[in-house]
Amino acid sequence: MILFENVGLRYGLGSEVLRDLTFRIDSRSFQFLTGPSGAGKTSLLRLMFLSLRPTRGLITMFDRDTATLSKDGRATLRRRIGIVFQDFRLLDHMTTYENVSLPLRVLGKEEAEYRAEVVELLQWVGLGERMDAFPPILSGGEKQRAAIARAVIARPQLLLADEPTGNVDPNLGQRLLRLFIELNKSGTSIIIATHDIALMDEYDARRLVLHEGRLHVYD
pLDDT digit string (tens) for 45-89? Predict the structure, then answer.
């Protein structure tokens, strides 16, 4: 699904923040991405989401060389990827329900096809009573749950989640992890960036560890 070969990334004229990354992500796989603050986890996720281009090296996604993709081609591949950003990126003029259902609308589905599924998912993440609320009045934890629901509603082939349990209590964090696990069982590859060692220790999953710009893989 994803292949990095000798990938490096720098911002401007500075030194490389990621260097010599060579690894692969298989279909239907589950892995944690971890490392100290500033190690480059968010940058690596952005490379995978095709919102950043590498300074050097080759990135292949869904059997396509990303360097040769047109703007439309990159947008098409992104529709196969769900992502949870740390800053949520909800649209303030849309309700929680409208934000979560947006990926399905982009795919051209009619509301009658998806309304029940969206409502069920919102209830699962504890937002059943907040479906008609707008993002500015939601708490940080509520925004995070809405962002997660939006990322998973279309059952993407790849899910990238940046600290998805960072603003919720441990019990809800476990519930969200179960949601990711069920999505993985249905065929989605999962990459979760987290600092939570205790959370990772509860699951027998592959670990991608960033340290000083280099990636170490522990199967």
Answer: 999 999 999 999 999 999 999 999 999 999 999 999 999 988 889
Q: Minimal CA–CA distance to 191: which of 7, 21, 73, 26?
A: 26
Beginning with the edge strand found earlier in the chain, give each strand of the sheet holding 56-61 in spatial order: 16-25, 2-10, 56-61, 64-65
Other beta carbons less than 10 A from residue 92's beta carbon = 8
Q: How far out from the chain centre does Cα 68 lie?
A: 23
Phi, psi of 74, rounded to the nearest 5 degrees: -65, -40
> Quick one: how far is CA 158 from the chain centroid?
8
What is the 8-class DSSP label of residue 51? S
Tell me the C-alpha distance between 200 and 206, whole Å. Answer: 9
HSE-up of 39 (CA within 13 Å, CB side)?
19
Helix (H) or strand (E) holding 32: strand 30-34
How far apart are alpha carbons 60 and 44 in whole angstroms? 14
Q: In one letter, which amino acid is 169?
A: D
**Structural tokens at position 88:** 């949520």
Q: Please state the pTM of the whole predicted model.
A: 0.90
* Alpha-carbon 40 to chain mean position: 15
Distance CA 94, CA 2 (A): 33
